[in-house]
Write a structure and sequence with these properties.
Blueprint: H1 5-13, E1 35-39, E2 42-45, E3 50-53, H2 56-59, H3 68-78, H4 89-101, E4 107-111, H5 114-129, E5 133-137, H6 155-159, H7 169-172, E6 175-178, H8 183-193, E7 197-202, H9 218-228, E8 232-237, H10 249-253, E9 259-262, E10 273-277, H11 279-282, H12 301-314, H13 319-341, E11 346-350, E12 353-357, H14 366-369, H15 374-386, E13 389-390, E14 399-400, H16 407-425
Parallel strand pairs: 3-13, 5-6, 5-7, 7-8, 8-9
Antiparallel strand pairs: 1-2, 2-3, 4-10, 9-10, 11-12, 12-14
Helix pairs in contact: 3-12, 4-12, 8-9, 13-16, 15-16
The protein binds pyridoxal-5'-phosphate (PLP).
Length: 427
């Protein structure tokens, strides 16, 4: 693969040549991908090569790129003007749908990204409890707001960054870190700081340290512990919402958080985030209440139309069963490829989300994830890309399937995974 002519141009005008760090492909050492267009399950690069896409805009695309119904809704909305800075019916319709679908959400506020959703949810939790400290999980990623840049996953894990310069130590001290799937690590923090903890924020299925499902009882204990100790439970469903299940991860695990943050799928590919919870809590948000949070472009008609089109289509019978079956086939296919090549592979899936580690035995938290064979991942990633398959350029990211990933595409991918692993292990 030779460097794209766009590489030098992008590097001269954008830091690292990108607008979000993982897109630089630094950790797999390959060239960044410059995309010309996307359709269905495929991306076409500026070099004209088509790749089967398992990144799907980092989970934002649920039905497939350029889905005809969604594209038509967007076109119709554009014709009526792209932003009004006033309330429109589409935001009310999307809010009604979210409230109908997500078990714990009675009222919702739309924002413009997942980061805005999570930072606003934490502000609300601090206001509601009168406490300042929060607990997040080691390797959990909740966007780039100051309070989350402590032991983060996703790009921070990929780049090996423990925190970020520019985050005042005084703020970082307010964020404590526990271990995913380790109830005692959270209980210890409550023993030491119980009266100061405003909230526990958690991705109910980890997706930014690789894909790691919750173990039975973990999220249930977070629920009871936070209730007992007067803190709020925030499920960050920016990635899992409308992706692992129509009604979110909370409906899969049967745990209702106090606040839910959403993003990605909810915007149908546009920059939309949302946070919601009980009417009591949400009534604290301005102008109903005094917790300030605002946005010039929040709830704009085109993103709302895109989100509505996706969520309406997602209610079609059988979608999540299809996604779950296909992500399951990919996870099994990776494990089978591993057995064939004599390499330990631990893979798992839920709905349209899946992932694998080159690791012996199940991975339950970020420190176990970090023990996976990252060098083999780099070789495998490159080989898969050469064969026409795009995976996220890091072992610490989940993979995604959309409804456009047909059984035939999945079967072909599984064959190519086996070939890619054979190449990656042949060195
Ligand atoms: N929360 C989770 C679980 C995420 O995966 C992400 C992004 O990947 C975010 C929050 C931040 O969302 P955004 O990138 O839209 O700001």
């Amino acid at each position: 693969m030779s460097a794209s002519p766009l590489a030098a141009r992008s590097l001269s005008v954008m830091p690292g040549g990108v607008n979000s760090p993982v897109r630089a492909f630094g950790s797999v050492g390959g060239d960044p991908l410059f995309v010309r267009e996307a359709d269905g399950a495929f991306l076409t690069g500026h070099d004209g090569r088509r790749l089967v896409d398992y990144v799907m805009s980092w989970g934002a695309i649920l039905l497939g790129h350029n889905h005809p119904t969604v594209a038509e809704s967007i076109r119709r909305a554009v014709e009526r003007g792209v932003t009004y800075g006033m309330t429109c019916e589409a935001e009310i319709e999307l809010a009604e749908l979210v409230v109908e679908l997500v078990p714990s959400v009675e009222m919702v506020r739309f924002v413009n990204s997942g980061t805005e959703a999570t930072m606003s949810a934490v502000r609300l939790a601090r206001a509601a409890t009168g406490r300042n400290m929060i607990v997040k999980m080691d390797g959990g990623y909740h966007g780039h707001a100051d309070c989350f840049l402590v032991s983060g996953g996703s790009g921070m894990a990929t780049l090996g960054i423990p925190g970020s310069p520019g985050v005042p130590a005084e703020l970082a001290r307010l964020t404590l870190t526990a271990t995913f799937n380790d109830v005692e690590s959270v209980e210890r923090l409550f023993d030491d700081h119980g009266d100061e903890l405003a909230a526990v924020i958690v991705e109910p299925f980890f997706g930014n340290a690789g894909f790691i499902p919750p173990q039975e009882g973990f999220l249930q204990r977070l629920r009871s512990l936070t209730t007992e100790r007067g803190a709020l439970l925030i499920f960050d469903e920016v990635m899992t919402g409308f992706r692992v299940q129509l009604r979110g991860a909370q409906s899969l695990v049967g745990v209702e958080p106090d606040l839910t943050t959403m993003g990605k799928v909810i915007g149908g590919g546009f920059p939309v985030g949302a946070y919601g919870g009980s009417k009591d809590l949400m009534a604290r948000i301005a102008p109903a209440g005094s917790v300030y949070q605002a946005g010039t472009l929040s709830g704009s008609p085109v993103p709302m139309a895109a989100g509505l089109a996706v969520l309406r289509a997602a209610q079609e019978d059988g979608l999540y069963e299809r996604l779950d079956r296909r992500s399951g086939m990919l996870a099994e296919g990776m494990e089978a490829a591993g057995s064939k090549c004599g390499v330990p592979v631990s893979a798992d899936h839920a709905g349209g989300m899946w992932g694998f580690f080159f690791h012996d035995g199940p991975v339950t938290n970020f420190s176990e994830a970090k023990q996976c064979d990252t060098e083999l991942f780099v070789r495998f990633h490159r080989a898969a890309r050469e064969l026409g398959i795009l995976l996220a350029p890091s072992p610490f990211e989940a993979a995604f399937v959309s409804d456009a990933h047909t059984d035939d595409i999945i079967a072909e991918t599984i064959d190519l995974f086996a070939q890619a692993l054979a190449r990656a292990t042949a060195v």
